[in-house]
Amino acid sequence: MPPTILIVEDTQSLAMLYQSYLVPTGVNTLVANDGASALAIIDKIKPDLIVLDVMLPDMNGLDILAKLAPDNFPQVVVLTGHATKEMAIQAIKLGASDFLEKPVEAERFRITINNALKIKDLKQTVTKYKNTYENGRYFDLIGSSKQMQSVYQIISSASVSKATVFITGESGTGKELCARAVHQASNRADKPFVALNCAAIPKDLIESEIFGHLKGAFTGAIANRLGAAGQADGGTLFLDELCEMDVNLQSKLLRFIQTGTYQQVGSEKVVNVDVRFVCATNRDPLVEVEAGRFREDLYYRLHVIPIELPPLRERSTDIIEIAEALFIKIAREEQHPYKGITEDVKRLLAQYDWPGNVRQLENVIRNILVLNAQEWIDVNMLPSLPQSSQKEIPNYKPNESFTHTKIQEFEELPQIESDIKALWLAEKDYIERVIKICSTNIPKAAALLEVSPSTLYRKIKSWEENL
After folding, report:
1. Which CATH architecture does the domain made up of 313-381 adopt?
2. What letter does residue 405 receive in the DSSP assignment?
3. 417-466: same fold as 313-381?
4. Which residues have CB under 8 Å from 115's CB, separation 6+?
5. Any idea where the domains of the chain sit in the sequence?
6. CA dist 298 to 158, 201, 204, 230, 253, Å?
7. SS3 435
8. So what CATH class is 137-310?
9. Which of 19, 107, 286, 328 is the most buried (most CB within 10 A)?
10. String of b and e for 140-165 (b: at least 16 CB within 10 Å)?
11. φ, ψ for residue 263 (rounded to 5)?
12. CB 15 within 8 A of CB 33
């Protein structure tokens, strides 16, 4: 919606001239010829900016400036043909953002108005950011590092728009929390936030999960189902692990995004909804596009405001903030008498790489609190962490009661080009070795590898297709 500008000018011809100056900018303009009319319009309309003449027939323009409510103060450009240094200083002290002398050229007038509107937008962004970012937290996201402050700023800037947000990052970095923050920072915060994990739903059911179905549309459809798109009407639809979506369904999703309309499975009726899309993936979407697994047109349709969440190892200053918040949260859930962690524990947590990111950190903290009832958490209570990612920590001795299955070292790493194998084959060899050590117990292997069992099943299936 274009901003509204009130021009307070008692000379009708000048008021019309200023309006004509602003026609190319597309703003809405209102005119008041005296102070009383101006105050009535300000009270009723609350304009974004006021062009305020000082010499009015019924009062001084600076008196109007002094009466403006401080909690909803618009941008004000003071305009006069009798400027003095003292008047300019007084206008600025009363809250005016700029001061112009008559006569004013069109270009100068437009530039001044445009700059004042930019300052207003910046003030609103900063105010919103201050209100939501407090003590290293931005909604449910935690971290004071520069990387996370950059993420918070992008979310705050994107909050006023309906533009699609595309979140990328390693598994466990908090992509869903980021998506929720996008929703909570927007003007849709009081509407539904609906999350759908595209990797966790069987291929033949995902269309129904997104768009819903009618009773009897397929075997097992015993009742009408609204679907995520219908549930999110007016709010935000979060599609997690988007790159896992079947290519055939991607075309229907593209049409839904372009038109805002869809059809339920088994129905010919077109449903229209107002949905803001937020998507996420732990894969490189461009690699998926090049491999033909993700539609290029869908990628460019969705990749409007990208947010890349940094892995925990790149934001080590945030680790203790996150850990302490998680200790408090999980202690409350587990009714644990937790009071704090020692400096040795802080040092250990901060120096570990956390390949599983925040999710791994949360699992370790829950392990500690469930298995140790003490109020203060010391280093001997920590489970053993995989040494392949463990930085050298002096005087650290892990609790021997928590040991992971030891996986023998791979054969010597490649030394020449002919020894190098494809990354997916190296991953395949490693995972198959872990599964063998676990006596083909895939859930156990997944736990040791800190991934979900569905991830391993999916990889095994893809290997079968590639071989």
Report:
1. Orthogonal Bundle (1.10)
2. P
3. no
4. 98
5. 4-128, 137-310, 313-381, 417-466
6. 20, 20, 20, 21, 8
7. helix
8. alpha beta
9. 19
10. ebbbbbeebeebbebbbebbeeeebb
11. -125, 135
12. yes
pLDDT digits (tens, 9 = 90+) for 23-71: 988 889 999 999 899 999 988 888 889 999 888 899 888 888 888 876 5
Burial track 84-106 (b if 16+ CB lie within 10 A, e otherwise): eeebbeebeebebbbbbeeebee
Chain-centre distance of CA 38, in angstroms? 41
CATH number of 417-466: 1.10.10
Two tokens at 93?
A: 């002290």
C-alpha 91/C-alpha 99 separation (Å) is 8
Residue 198 — φ and ψ, nearest 5°?
A: -70, -20
pLDDT tens, N- to C-terminus, the chain (467 residues): 788 999 999 888 999 999 999 998 888 999 999 989 999 998 888 888 999 988 889 988 888 888 887 656 788 998 877 766 677 778 877 888 888 888 888 998 999 898 888 887 777 655 555 555 566 789 999 998 989 988 998 998 888 888 999 999 999 999 999 999 999 999 899 999 999 999 888 887 888 899 988 888 777 777 888 899 999 999 999 999 999 898 889 999 999 999 999 999 888 889 999 999 999 999 999 999 999 999 999 999 999 999 999 999 999 889 999 999 999 999 999 999 999 999 989 988 988 889 999 999 999 999 999 999 999 999 889 887 775 444 443 333 434 333 333 444 444 567 777 778 788 788 888 888 888 887 777 767 777 887 766 677 778 877 776 66
DSSP reduced 3-state for 226: coil
User: Rounded CA gap, 273 and 201, in Å?
Assistant: 23
- Alpha-helix runs per DSSP H in 269-382: 285-290, 296-302, 319-334, 343-351, 357-371
Q: Of how many residues is the chain composed?
A: 467
Q: What is the pTM of this model?
A: 0.58
Q: How far apart are CA 412 and CA 36, in angstroms?
A: 86
Chain-centre distance of CA 169, in angstroms? 12
| Class of domain 4-128 (CATH, top level) | alpha beta
pLDDT digits (tens, 9 = 90+) for 68-86: 876 567 889 988 777 666 7
Listed in sequence order, the residues at least 6 apart from 202 whose beta carbon sits closer than 8 Å to its beta carbon are none
